[in-house]
Amino acid sequence: MSVNFNVRSVSDRLLDALRRDPSLTGSLCDSSVDFDFVAYEQLWFSSTRPEKREGARVTFERHRKAIHADQEEALAPLVAAGLTRDELGAVLHLGRSWWGMERMIVAPVGCRLVAESEGEAIGEDVGYGPAHLLFRFELPAILDALATVTREEAEARFRVYLEEDHARRRAGGLGVPPPMTDEEFEEWSWQPFVRLRAFVVATAEAKGAVLRWYD
């Protein structure tokens, strides 16, 4: 099972709501809350032949309704707390890009953005422990560390990490995945880092906090 890395921008109003009711964090971290139905439909039908689309539409609508019901259930506590969807903050779902990201960043203060236990824990377990908050006063130092990361240096450090991981796998009698290509590093590691850095910049400019969780 994959462990996925997620961050959300938290305004003062949203933070106040979480302080009053930490259980709202579970709703904020529910994957259905930010589900993109347009992208889902495009992906669903991207490989469907024209003559199969009518039948596929019936199945798609059944899945869409089920996901929408899950979304409404997750949103209900947030709405009851007086929050609108527009107040839930920007979010990034970065998949498995956390893998090796601490090696790419290096600086301990920058690694706080990724490290599972860093920040203030809030709410209950949302998959791999509770979510954590990094506050606005913490973000400038984190951004300074992220700003120094270059693609060339990040890739070199990441490939050293992969070599060490492969050595551990061989020693443990486990299978070793094939070497990562430049294109795979770009798509799975570097571009997620670039998006994460831009996200933190925007959050800091908006004087918000970062909510981080793994699921």
Unreliable stretches, pLDDT < 50, 5 or more residues? Answer: none
Beginning-to-end CA distance, first to last residue: 10 Å
Measured by DSSP, the beta-strand proportion falls in: 5-15%
Q: What structural class do helix, strand and pairing data support?
A: alpha+beta
- SSE succession: EHHHHEHHEEHHHE
Radius of gyration based on Cα positions? 20 Å
* Strand order of the biggest β-sheet: 2-1-5-4-3
Number of domains: 1
The percentage helix is: 40-55%
Largest beta-sheet characterization = 5 strands, antiparallel
Counting DSSP E segments of at least 2 residues, the number of strands comes to 5
Number of helices: 9
Shape field: globular
* Mean model confidence by pLDDT: 92
Give your account of this protein's structure:
The structure is a single chain. The protein has one domain (5-214). The protein has helices at 12-20, 24-28, 37-45, 53-80, 101-105, 108-111, 139-147, 151-171, 182-205, and strands spanning 5-10, 91-93, 120-122, 131-134, 209-214. The longest helix is centred in the N-terminal third of the chain and has 28 residues, at 53-80. Helix 3 packs antiparallel against helix 4 and helix 7 (139-147) runs antiparallel to helix 9. The protein is globular. The chain has 215 residues and is α+β, with helices and mostly antiparallel strands.
